[in-house]
Design a protein that fits this description.
The protein has 370 residues and is mainly α. 73% of the residues lie in helices and 4% in strands. A hairpin with a 2-residue loop joins β1 and β2. The chain is globular and about 55 Å long.
Length: 370
């Protein structure tokens, strides 16, 4: 009975991710269609989606014990990837966060997200609760977050910090240490504003975009114009001219605004509902998992995905200052899509007591035949 519950929610998660991925391919095509090669980005995104689905199935078939047993190895590999990108990576839009592999760009800060959560979940339960657990987890998280901040990629840092908070809370964390962490986070943020003037300029552009419409206010104004053109019903697929001509990175960091121009608010509400249902499915999967480490990973991964989606949408509807974050599964980019699929596969594996979901599927098929 429990395996049937795991199977149903796991298949639902995989199905929602695939539908969102296909929707993302359409959104990427619409946002880039008037360029010389309209199928270039959308075609590559479709290949990444199919690769991601394969990765999801493979990761789901690997027993969760394997991930837990090899968490140190995965952690070391992840940290080496994050550190090596600083001297050897390529710089794009002022951030040195990608490896250039011929025609491919790989962003390690995206790929290693599931392994970051695995490390936190594994070590969270080995330290007593309260201040000791928070300090230990914060030190572990800092090893990951500091290299990402040095790229600098503060949007991704915020997502990692949210993952730390969720794992700490789900592992039985106390309120007072969390308040102290929030205070430390505010102090650190103020330090970033002082040390990185361009971050402060983004806030200036956010609060008063008309003061510098061609500089710090450019992103905000283009978001607003694209959303205004979309209105309620949208301009329809293929007529998102503002996204194609003016919206910065309309196929990745601004994909939600590009979709809104094409489909209107009525067209993007189903996307929001699908994300909400996806997070609900992760929550249900976590409730039926055996063991605290498994439950925490599933719930935290769902929550981390929700935080990234929320930040992306909030930036695109101009209720947060601009930051470069993709919309999970929908935005163009193989690293982000692959990381989400790998994390979902590990979550599905964690929900199954001994084997991956495919084995449960095979057992169910044999039972029905008999």
């Amino acid at each position: 009975m429990k395996n049937d519950i795991h199977f149903k929610w796991s298949i639902l998660i995989a199905g929602i991710l695939f539908v969102l991925g296909l929707w993302g391919c359409l959104a990427v095509y619409s946002a880039t269609m008037i360029e010389g090669v309209p199928f270039y980005f959308a075609g590559r995104q479709l290949l990444w989606l199919l690769t991601g689905m394969i990765a999801l199935v493979v990761c789901a078939r690997i027993p969760f014990e394997f991930y837990s047993r090899n968490v140190m190895v995965l952690t070391v590999i992840s940290l080496l990837a994050l550190l090596a990108v600083l001297p050897f990576g390529v710089k794009i839009n002022g951030m040195r966060g990608w490896y250039s592999l011929g025609y491919l760009l790989v962003q390690p800060s995206e790929i290693v997200k599931p392994f970051f959560l695995l490390a936190l979940c594994h070590f969270a339960l080995s330290v007593k609760s309260g201040w000791s657990r928070l300090l230990a987890m914060a030190l572990i998280a800092a090893i990951w977050i500091v290299p990402i901040g040095l790229q600098p990629d503060f949007g991704t840092v915020a997502v990692y910090a949210a993952g730390l908070i969720m794992v700490y809370w789900l592992s039985g964390g106390a309120v007072k240490p969390l308040v102290s962490m929030a205070a430390l986070g505010i102090i650190s943020f103020c330090g970033v504003l002082l040390l990185k003037p361009y971050v402060w300029r983004r806030f200036e552009g956010f609060f008063n975009p008309q003061a510098d419409p061609l500089g710090s206010g450019w992103h905000i104004l283009q978001f607003q114009f694209a959303m205004a053109r979309g209105g309620v019903s949208g301009m329809s697929w293929g007529k998102a001219y503002w996204a194609n001509c003016y919206l910065p990175l309309s196929h990745s960091d601004s994909v939600f605004a590009a979709m809104t121009e094409a489909l209107g608010m009525a067209g993007v509400i189903p996307v929001i509902l699908l994300f909400a249902f996806l997070i609900f499915a992760f929550s249900k999967l976590a409730l039926h998992a055996d063991g605290a480490e498994r439950r925490i990973f599933i719930a935290a991964f769902g929550g981390m995905t929700a935080v990234q989606a929320l930040i992306h949408v909030s930036v695109n509807v101009t209720i947060m200052p601009p930051t470069g974050l993709t919309l999970p599964v929908l935005s163009y980019g193989g690293s982000s899509l692959l990381a989400t699929m790998i994390g979902a596969g590990i979550a599905i594996s964690a929900a199954t007591p001994k084997t991956g979901i495919i084995s449960s599927w095979n057992r169910k098929s044999k039972t029905q035949k008999n």
